Amino acid sequence: MIVGVLLPLPFNDVFDYKVEGDAVLGEMVRVSFGKEILVGVVWKLGKNSKLDDSKIKPILGRVDFPPLSAELMKFVNFVAAYNMAFQGLVLKMVLSVRGVFDDLKTVTLYKLSGKTLAEAKLKNSDARWRVMDLLRHYPYTRAEIAQGAGVGQAVIKTMIDAGVLEPVVVQSKRDFGMPRGDFAKVELTDEQQAAADVLYGKVGQGFSVTLIDGVTGSGKTEVYFEAVAKALEDERQVLIMVPEISLTTQWLSRFEKRFGVKPACWHSALGTRERIDTWQGIIENRAKVVVGARSALFLPYADLGLIVIDESHDHSFKQEDVVNYQGRDMAVARAKFEQFPVILSTATPDLETLCNVESGKYDAVYLKSRFAAALLPEIKIIDLKKDKPQKFANDKAQLSVGWLAPTLVNALKENLDKGEQSLLFLNRRGYAPLTICRDCGHRIQCPNCTAWLTEHRRSKSLVCHHCGYTTSIPSCCPECHSEEGLTACGPGVERVAEEVSRRFPLARIGVLSSDITSTLNDVSEVIRKMEDHEIDILIGTQILAKGHHFPSLTLVGIVDADLGLMGSDLRASETTFQLLSQVAGRAGRGEKKGTVYLQTLYPENAVLQALLTNDRERFVSLEKDSRRLLKLPPFGKLAALVVSGANQEAVEKTAVYLGQNAPNTDMITTLGPAPAPIFMLRGKFRYRLLLKTARAINIQEVIRTWLKRVQVPSSVRVQVDIDPYSFM
Q: Which is nearest to 144 in space by CA: 281, 241, 277?
């Protein structure tokens, strides 16, 4: 029999192979492809091949895992077609675990023995503490410990020899435990119970999408946990999708307290061993609840019965590399193929979701009150034109530029005096976003990107936040060689932390930023310190907007509320409103009422005024009117074409040809080509075109026809982004 095998490679078609005996659609097989042995999936049966029979290779063997379901295969085809991606690359996301198909073997892992460093007569060191921190939740191999903790084998061997670490020989199959819906039921308020009853009734009743629209601190998680409990009663698997950075010990502990065991996790920080265990547990139906980032959507669940998308408004669900897709929308598509419900949970629903609720496509439940009688915070605006930040004395007894208005400084002092916690938010990593020479005006730029290098004073380096290029801070200007001219411009979280530490030398200060707290363990440790009141003032980026609960946090200061409002992004206002609402929602979640200060140069801005008056409906109405007038999503469709390559002339020529052959009708408009705002990215030159159509138009078919009219050279890449979120 000839079968068509889809391989996890950038191809849109299957490859022909011979198979002895019967074959099953969806089964995984080993095949020879070029000089490699790959695992692919039987995608077509009884195929009529164009190849001579003698040239068709046989499959080398079958993989001992259940076949992919017909519904999952249809989903892969849909994702590829909708997002104009290669089928093989979508399949790669399903099979994307290195070593998962190797023969099952025993493996030696290492865990903490319980013996302390002092008992083992070992000195405290950062390296040893990193090892212990890594192994706090899960055992790892020596190689994984070395990589995850950033230590040498000698450190690990010393700890093993001293008895701090002990070996564990395990089978590759991991026991995930069985979460129980009735393990520890939580008493819900009447409002929460009414919402939970609706969600409970959706499980097991086919496809539906329901929005939990609840204010921050209203108990949305506990409500959707009731739907999770129902799916577990029905012996179905559950996927809970969260923004990756939200996957902290705090969230996992809440789940364990409710269901008795921790869920299986899926995110970028997992070691190879844990990824293999989880993938195998999912396809064999041993892992009943999976909590993970957007990529968890593509795992081969044996019997998926519910998807919950927490913080469903979050833009991190949009994938913008290799295969472009919107995780929230693709989750809805998978649920429709497999006929189970989806729950979207957020305090700040996106416009697309709200329009789907209005049209009746989605259902909604509402939580309008905070849990346990906690009150929503009072929001105040600080006009920086009138309430200007004052200079402060730095560690060299010199005056430095301040970034905090006197009103906010006084509020921080009062909060410290009361023994309550404060949070300062600035969505900008590092110390300063720009280094400029005062003598000649030279700005230090990334050699690979059209972007300024950000100063990171802690690491004494300049970093590109687009490609990762890093260099040391020069002692003099590279252009004019002035030794006194270089100066940092603008604030990042490190600079705000510096100011806070100078103004409040006795305060315990924490910083939460992806470059400082680079792993989930690091984030969890900072959150633990906040929970245990070991931090008085926490300073951080958007990590802080992800659903954290700090009962003693009563003051939130947003340092630059304007950041993000002035860009060309069509969702700039919406995104800013969502982000600031989420950050503001961290205040006053306990017994004491919270206060939020927004520092701005534009107090009259509609977004800030909506926050001030707690009038989301008015903001949403204005945003809808604006989008409808311009026929932008959700009232129209968008697709971006990004033309890139190392040869600037070839890229520009291709972009011009695309523009000359672009479709333009009453219902289709093409904008561009134009150099991308970040013209060079990772050494590649970039031009952008934007296709705008009416909702009734099949935008994918329009693009396919368009691309056929233009011959693209091999040195140039044209990437299609359906429903773009980034316009950079």
A: 277
- Mean pLDDT over residues 180-194, rounded? 91
Query: What ranges in 42-189 are assigned the alpha helix state H?
Result: 70-83, 87-94, 126-134, 142-149, 153-161
Predicted structure pTM score: 0.84
pLDDT digits (tens, 9 = 90+) for 477-502: 988 998 888 899 999 999 999 999 99
Helix 572-584 vs helix 606-613: crossing angle, to nearest 10 = 30
Q: Which two tokens stand for residue 69?
A: 């379901």
Rounded CA gap, 542 and 571, in Å?
A: 17
* 8 Å CB contact between 496 and 403: yes
Contacts by 125-131 with C-beta closer than 8 Å and gap 24+? Answer: 125/155, 127/151, 127/152, 127/155, 128/155, 128/159, 128/164, 131/155, 131/156, 131/159, 131/165
Structure tokens at 530: 């906040």
- The tally of CA atoms less than 13 A away on the side-chain side of residue 58 is 6
Number of H helices, E strands in the chain: 19, 33
**Of 558, 624, 540, whose CA–CA distance to 349 is shortest?**
624
Percent of the chain with pLDDT over 90: 62
Q: How far is it, in rounded angstroms, from Cα 429 to Cα 422?
A: 19
109-124: burial string, b at 16+ Cβ within 10 Å, e else: bbebbeeebeebebee
What average pLDDT does the structure give for the chain? 89
The per-residue pLDDT for 452 is 94
